[in-house]
Design a protein that fits this description.
The protein has 3 helices and 2 strands. It has about 80 residues and is an alpha+beta fold. The radius of gyration is 17 Å and the shape is flat.
Length: about 80
Protein backbone atom coordinates (compact mmCIF):
# COMPACT_ATOMS: atom_id res chain seq x y z
CA UNK A 1 0.00 0.00 0.00
CA UNK A 2 1.42 3.36 -1.02
CA UNK A 3 1.37 6.18 1.50
CA UNK A 4 0.87 9.72 0.30
CA UNK A 5 2.60 12.35 2.39
CA UNK A 6 1.65 15.99 2.13
CA UNK A 7 5.34 16.89 1.90
CA UNK A 8 5.52 14.77 -1.28
CA UNK A 9 2.61 16.74 -2.77
CA UNK A 10 4.36 20.02 -1.97
CA UNK A 11 7.61 18.80 -3.51
CA UNK A 12 5.76 17.65 -6.65
CA UNK A 13 4.52 21.21 -7.23
CA UNK A 14 7.96 22.69 -6.58
CA UNK A 15 7.54 23.85 -2.99
CA UNK A 16 9.97 23.16 -0.16
CA UNK A 17 7.87 21.73 2.71
CA UNK A 18 10.11 23.54 5.20
CA UNK A 19 8.91 26.86 3.71
CA UNK A 20 5.19 26.03 4.05
CA UNK A 21 3.41 26.70 7.34
CA UNK A 22 0.47 24.38 7.96
CA UNK A 23 -2.47 25.97 9.75
CA UNK A 24 -5.38 23.88 10.99
CA UNK A 25 -8.71 25.46 11.91
CA UNK A 26 -11.47 23.53 13.63
CA UNK A 27 -15.18 24.18 13.29
CA UNK A 28 -15.30 23.23 16.95
CA UNK A 29 -13.67 26.59 17.72
CA UNK A 30 -16.51 29.10 18.15
CA UNK A 31 -14.59 32.11 16.82
CA UNK A 32 -13.49 30.23 13.71
CA UNK A 33 -16.99 28.80 13.15
CA UNK A 34 -18.43 32.34 13.06
CA UNK A 35 -15.85 33.36 10.45
CA UNK A 36 -16.43 30.18 8.47
CA UNK A 37 -20.18 30.83 8.39
CA UNK A 38 -19.52 34.40 7.14
CA UNK A 39 -17.02 33.14 4.52
CA UNK A 40 -14.15 35.19 5.96
CA UNK A 41 -11.67 32.40 6.73
CA UNK A 42 -8.83 34.18 4.93
CA UNK A 43 -9.36 37.34 6.97
CA UNK A 44 -9.57 35.31 10.19
CA UNK A 45 -6.34 33.48 9.36
CA UNK A 46 -4.47 36.72 8.63
CA UNK A 47 -4.86 37.86 12.26
CA UNK A 48 -1.56 36.55 13.62
CA UNK A 49 1.46 37.92 15.42
CA UNK A 50 4.07 39.80 13.39
CA UNK A 51 6.52 36.89 13.65
CA UNK A 52 4.02 34.13 12.90
CA UNK A 53 5.19 33.70 9.31
CA UNK A 54 8.91 34.18 9.91
CA UNK A 55 10.81 31.56 7.94
CA UNK A 56 7.84 30.63 5.75
CA UNK A 57 6.96 31.68 2.23
CA UNK A 58 3.52 30.07 2.09
CA UNK A 59 0.62 29.09 4.28
CA UNK A 60 -1.46 25.99 3.74
CA UNK A 61 -4.75 26.45 5.58
CA UNK A 62 -6.82 23.40 6.41
CA UNK A 63 -10.11 23.21 8.23
CA UNK A 64 -12.44 20.53 9.44
CA UNK A 65 -15.65 20.06 7.51
CA UNK A 66 -17.76 19.25 10.53
CA UNK A 67 -17.66 19.40 14.28
CA UNK A 68 -16.54 16.16 15.86
CA UNK A 69 -18.79 15.30 18.74
CA UNK A 70 -17.20 13.74 21.74
CA UNK A 71 -18.89 10.59 22.84
CA UNK A 72 -19.31 10.05 26.52
CA UNK A 73 -18.95 6.67 28.04
CA UNK A 74 -20.36 5.74 31.40
CA UNK A 75 -18.79 3.17 33.62
CA UNK A 76 -21.13 1.11 35.70
CA UNK A 77 -20.50 -1.19 38.61
Amino acid sequence: MAILNFSDVLKNVGLDPKRVKLIWHSLGDKAFKKCYDKNIVEEYTRVQSETFSNGYDYWCVLSSTRVRRQSSSHATR
